[in-house]
Amino acid sequence: ENPRRRREGKSTMGPVKVLGRAVQKVADSVMMTLIGNDAMYIYNVSWEDPRIDHTVLKCNKDDHVITIASAGDNAFDYLIEGARVTAVDFNGAQIALTEIKAAACRLLTFEDFFKIFAKNDMDLLRAHYHQVLRKELTNPTAAFWDKQINRIKTIMYSGTSGILAWFVCRGLFSALGLGFIRRTLVEQGSNDKFQNECLRHKRRLAVFCWVVDKIISNFGGAMMAGVPSRQLELGLHRLDNFQTIFKRILTTNMVLDNYFYYGYIAGEYSEACCPQYLKREQFMKLRAALNDRRLTLFEGTLVDVCKQHPDKQYTVASLLDHMDWMPPFMINEEMHWLQKQLCPKRGRIFWRSFSENVHSAPLVWLKPQRVEDSGDRVAMYWSTWMAKMDGSIRFDLRARQWATTKAKTQTFFSSLMTGVKIVTFPLIKGMMAKRVAAKHGISVHASKMEAFYESQKDEYDGFRENFLHARPVLAECIPLKETKMVWVDVGGGTGRNLEFFTVDTIKQRFSKIYIVDVSVSLLEVAKQRVEAAGLSDIVECVFCDFTDNKMVADKLPAQKTCDLVTMSYSLSMIPSKEQALQSAANLLKPKGEGVLGLADFFYGGGPRASRRQGDKDGITNIFTKIYCELTRLWFKQDGVILLKRSVLESAAHLFDFESVPDEMFRKRVPLLPILRPWHGVIMAPTK
After folding, report:
1. 184, 501, 518, 623: which could form a disulfide with 193 (CB 3.0–4.6 Å)?
2. Residues 6 or more apart from 325 whose CB is under 8 A from it?
3. H/E/C letters for each residue in 585-612?
């Protein structure tokens, strides 16, 4: 066993985790306020190494790159290569920074351009701004710089990331006795002396890395660097993140090549160590591209620009690391619009991640290739990916409800009455089940389910809309193929799960859908819903016990012919969970062609939610254990057995539960807010 993993497993979470997450939530709110109000840019420097982009993408004059503007540096690199660029940013302040750099490149001499953006000559920028630059800027950019031109004292330490860099390089360096870093790199200009001094001061550097880790991970410092908590959590299971980053930085030449850190340490760039757009030999190339109007700036999201300019076609979508913080529905939406406008033959998606692996299910289905990124001078990313957008996977927009479905308004009183039925059912379960079994001639388990849902069928969807929170997430994580698919929805009940896809999507992407359940009452509702939507030729409602091999063989498709089997809040209610998973494996196509999708209640948050600490269910301390046990007992009275990881382990020989990241989160139970069970979505291709 890996001793590092053993050490992680013994870690406890407790109050430190709770406090840290509270701080991160506040930091997220502050960051989004800054971005949303266009009050100040986050990045004064683009923190992605363009050298990796050039090596992988090899852009030329025939390429049109759509990318995140950030500080404009990487967009300028693409222009220097010859590509056309559309640079997009939700933060108008980032667009303002990029635009003033572009205007200065077009209108100033190289010497003045370099003095301003490499040497921080703000007096020179102010003079040129009022005399030359302002009249060339768009109104929003001019308005931003009218406010900021006299406030910003130095470009290098401006923006929240610049302020954080000043605190680290001028404050922490001094406080921790690390003055040798600036002395060797800037004053002496020797990378060798810097390396030797680092060896001499290992302990000080270890303390420095620990402090920076804590500032970023626990005290909201990630906000200053433009890193939301959702992205940060992709790497919090790793020990000593910044120590790893620092070791990577040491492998680069900090004096002549790694301008990302040299600039912050020195407070300015040198002629030898600066971004490409500040190199004298590249200046005229950039100016020519800008004069040729090969740069388009757009304030908004990638989705916004695709909607507003549907005629544009791109060959590359360079998405930096911004998908790290996006939930599946946002990734799906972004991929949907990019897919419409990426060249079907040459279209590529390129991104970086703080995670070692592809971090979200919609991206896994693209089958991305991990690209070689050793030597990345930023050193802060754990993986870099590229995928072709060839159309084999479709990113159709998901829906919420069909127009043909008559939704019943859920009032507090109706919710309360449904809740009472659920809570009191265990008291009358035996009597009701016998009556139902005699009426329908069905199995014991089926009679219990029918007895439970018979009196709730009319309020079923309305009540559970605020209860079964993972259902829409499951829909977002399902892969849609260009070829038509066969889908078996086990425990599909009223057919509500289908409504997360539009009627057109169902007609285009599925040849057959089976809604399987053991409740006759719920299947009646499903049949009415399907008929109203005009989908009776595609969707079949099937009464079937999914753990009964004979019923499965008689009523469902032949073995190894299905593309998708889903269980949405049903596996936790099936007594023989292992048999249900075996039945799913029997139906699905083998060798990764078939996919199992689970949305359900879980005992704990699992390894990802607990940062791979504690046990396999993510239980990290005795208090969490007690809470999870009480939650388990409450659900058990209604026949819901919270899923443990051991259930998945029992089917590990059938499904690959490791290749697709799960989604785990907690939500309150209606009318009982003290209960916050774990909801989860797990996607698993067949083996």
Report:
1. 184
2. 227, 228, 230, 231
3. HHHECCCCCCEEEEEEEECCCHHHHCCC
Q: What is the pLDDT of residue 10?
A: 41
* DSSP state string for 34-72: HHHTT-S-S-SS--S-HHHHHHHH---TT-EEEEE-TTS
Mean pLDDT of 465-474: 90
Q: Is the pLDDT of residue 20 over 80?
A: no
Q: What is the DSSP letter of 131?
A: I
Give the type of residue at 433: A
| Sequence-ordered alpha helix ranges (H) in 310-352 | 328-341
pLDDT tens for each residue of 59-117: 999 999 999 999 999 999 999 999 999 999 999 999 999 999 999 999 999 999 999 99
Q: What is the pLDDT of residue 249?
A: 96
**Region of poorest pLDDT, from 9-18, 259-268, 492-501, 599-608:** 9-18
First to last CA, the chain: 25
Dist CA 288 CA 473 (whole Å): 47
What b/e readout covers 511-539, taking b as 16+ CB neighbours within 10 angstroms? ebbbbbbbbbbbbebbbbbbeebebeebb
d(CA 450, CA 433): 8
Q: How far apart are CA 67 and CA 83, in angstroms?
A: 12
Dist CA 558 CA 105 (whole Å): 66
Q: How far apart are CA 215 and CA 192, in angstroms?
A: 29
DSSP run (H or E) holding 541 = strand 539-543
Angle at 109 between CA 70 and CA 50, to 5 degrees: 30
CA distance 26 to 536: 49
**27-32 contacts at long range (C-beta below 8 A, 24 or more positions apart):** 27/220, 27/222, 27/223, 27/229, 28/223, 28/228, 28/229, 30/220, 30/223, 31/160, 31/223, 31/226, 31/228
Max Cα–Cα distance, the chain, nearest Å: 92
Counting beta carbons within 10 angstroms of the beta carbon of residue 250, is it exposed (0 to 12), middle (13 to 18) or buried (19 or more)?
middle
For residue 221, what pLDDT is reported? Answer: 78
DSSP-derived secondary structure letter, 374? T
Average pLDDT over residues 665-679: 88
* pTM value > 0.85: yes
pLDDT over 90 percentage in the chain: 75
Q: Are 385 and 369 in contact (CB under 8 A)?
A: yes
Nearest in space to 212 (alpha carbons), one of 224, 200, 194: 224
Burial tier of 183 (Cβ tally within 10 Å: 0-12, 13-18, 19+): middle
